[in-house]
Amino acid sequence: MNTTPASPAHPPAPRRTGIAWPRRLSWRLALGFGSLVGLMLLALALASLQIRAMTELTERFATQDMQRLLRVQSLSLTTEGIGNALLHLMNAPREQRVPVYADVDDRNRRIDGIIESLTNNLDELTQVQTLRRLNEARVAYHEAFIATVDEIEGDDTQAALRIYREKVMPALEQVLMESNMLINRERERVEQQMDSTQARLEQLAIWVAALSLLAVGLGVALALGTTRSVVSPLAQLEAAALRIAAGDYLQPVLATSTEEIDRVGQALTAMTGAIAAREQEIERLAFRDPLSDLPNRTFLLKQCDDRGVSTMGNAFMLFDLARLKTVNETLGFAIGDTLIGELAQRARAAVQASPAHSGALLVHLSGGKFALLLAASTRAPVEALCQQLMDAAAQPVQCGEHSVDLSLAFGLADSPIGEPLAVITLMRNAEVALSVAKQATQSLAWYNPAQEAARLSHLGLLSDLRAAVTGSQLQMWLQPKFSLQTGLAVGAEALVRWQHPKRGFISPAEFVPFAEKTGAITLITDWMLAQAMQTLAQWQHRHPELSLSVNVSTRDLQDPTFCQRVKQLMQQHAITPQQLRLEIVESGLMQDAHTSIALLHRLRELGVQLSIDDFGTGYSSLAYLQQLPVTELKIDRSFVTGIQDLPGTQRLVKTMIEMGHGMDLLVTAEGIETLAERDTLKALGCDVMQGYFGSRPLHGDALAAWFAGLEAAASHQN
Ligand code: C2E
Ligand code: MG
Ligand code: MG
């Protein structure tokens, strides 16, 4: 999946040569359809103009040209009739002349009327000239006609006939000839008119056909153009959307030739950018730890899945920042976070500074736990890297006024040569090794299958443990506790020991956690309580100041009869309740806190002292402890080891002691092995010490000797 966002800028549209075609589809459609409509309108206008011209032409033809032609024809006919009328008049007796005169007058008037109307109607020059000549001939005829009529009325037929032949006839022929010329010309004109109308009609048909063809062509081009400019960019968009859906954010949505679609493309590109950024953020959140800015467990597993663990490494290192919880609870979460961040930075720098491990993958698993997957053919370079990491962590971290030490424990696992293990197996093995290292308070431990076998062998221990309680395989050892102020013994802690008939000595660190898991621990607690009561019963007459601490487990705290059993045992052995201390591991309180705390209150009401054991390794906070009816705080051994050289730890322990005192608690330091540790703890204000420096856990003769020594010390003091 590509997660780099595409550039939000839209890439330029491909350059086109030729006509600049508008990029907006709306403009293109408007232009296309506009031209189409324009073309159609033009054809329509042209057709209507031509039709109008034709109508005018036809109208003129009917009202003027045809009329004129008819008039000219009628002039010719009328003129022809006058000659005959005159001849008839010349030969007619006087009494018959009147109707003939009337006929001739009528014809003359008609001729005059026609000529007059033609005078107003003719506009062509040749016709006007012809008409003028016709008019002159008519005038000549008119004069000759008057002269002829005069002779007829004078009954001089010969003279009339002569005038008729010499003047009337030529004049009439002239009139006839001119009128025939007019007719011919008018006919010619009508014919011309007809021809031109025909030609115009044909032209119009051609124009309309051409425009229609052009419109059809334009329509087709428009349809094709529109389809192409919409369909192909849409197909481009579709392809881009499919690419985005497939997670390809690199290829930008290409610009098309259509502005509107480009805008959708730009929106798509912007959306792609936003999705890519969001995906990157999601991926960052999913695969990176925000506190340490290192890849996380999910990333490690994914990388191993994608690339194969064999190509990434065959050794797995797990390291844990000790006492992180205590730092969180006493100095605050901000300082705890600073420590994680600082450790991440130093670890990264240390790995980068080690060329042999350039391909190593450093991840932050959770809390103060980090992992490193690396390639190594032998164990030595891995251990060397552990040392480099420890060196990098050696310098305390300054958090405001606090200087806090970074203490690391390493669990290491590797694959057999040529047989790369799955990363999840390597991780689990390293976890086992880490817990072994922690239990043994070593800085590092390599995983070996025996550790696994030891774990598995616990199962077999369950039935053995029941036998151990009923048989006499268990022993109670006592480790004395001394006041740091007076140096005198203040009591002892009862520690169970198991002498297994076949396996030999089994450490409580091995079987107690297992017994807690299976519930068999209550058998041990009961046995230890009974033993402790017997011891206290012996002590209380000679050393009533001594108390005895018995470790109780989480299971005991959830047993509603526990309090009653303790009470009965105390009564049975007539023990002063103040002499009995019950040690509770702080993590135990967290499980079913309500029942546990109620039980603690009931125990406290009996007068029994309550101690918080291994303080600093679990999950409770001092503020939370304030709500508990406890009377003693036992600071875990991990804070004590080498404390004289660890100023940061000194500050932390001092805070714990001060807060403990603030809550009226007796503060005991566990695991003091050296004089320097004891002096440092004493200087920090700690009340009681327990550890090999004071005394190892004692049993049998050694215990009796110590007790006898107490007598001596007491009598010496007295
Ligand atoms: P714990 O209650 O914190 O007991 C103190 C452990 O520290 C004991 O280990 C003791 O031998 C060891 N220790 C004391 N001083 C020093 C020292 O100066 N240096 C070193 N390195 N170690 C020191 P142990 O006896 O092996 O017991 C381990 C744990 O097993 C105890 O830790 C306690 O949590 C548990 N345990 C022991 N006995 C009983 C028991 O009877 N009942 C229950 N529920 N748990 C028990
Ligand atoms: Mg204890
Ligand atoms: Mg302890």
Give a topology summary.
Blueprint: H1 25-91, H2 97-121, H3 125-153, H4 157-245, H5 259-287, E1 288-289, E2 294-295, H6 297-307, H7 309-312, E3 315-321, H8 324-331, H9 333-352, E4 361-366, E5 369-374, H10 380-394, E6 397-399, E7 402-404, E8 408-414, H11 423-439, E9 444-446, H12 449-470, E10 474-483, E11 489-500, E12 504-506, H13 508-518, H14 521-542, E13 547-552, H15 554-557, H16 562-573, E14 580-585, H17 586-590, H18 593-606, E15 609-615, H19 622-625, E16 632-635, H20 637-640, H21 647-662, E17 666-669, H22 675-683, E18 688-690, H23 700-717
Parallel strand pairs: 8-9, 11-13, 13-14, 14-15, 15-16, 16-17, 17-18
Antiparallel strand pairs: 1-2, 3-5, 3-8, 4-5, 6-7, 10-11, 10-18, 11-12
Helix pairs in contact: 1-2, 1-4, 2-3, 3-4, 4-5, 8-9, 9-10, 12-13, 14-16, 16-18
The structure holds ligand C2E and magnesium ion (2 copies).
**What strand order characterises the main sheet?**
10-11-13-14-15-16-17-18
Number of helical regions = 23
Oligomer: single chain
Low-confidence stretches: 1-9
Mean pLDDT: 84
Q: Any idea what the shape is?
A: rod-shaped
- Major sheet: 8 strands, mixed, barrel
CATH structural architecture of the largest domain:
Alpha-Beta Barrel
Superfamily at the CATH H level of the largest domain? EAL domain
Helix amount: 55-70%
Bound molecules: ligand C2E, magnesium ion
How much β-strand is present in the residues?
5-15%
Please identify the structural class as seen in this structure.
alpha/beta
How many domain units? 3
> In whole angstroms, how far apart are the ends?
84 Å
Number of strands: 18
In angstroms, what is the radius of gyration? 65 Å
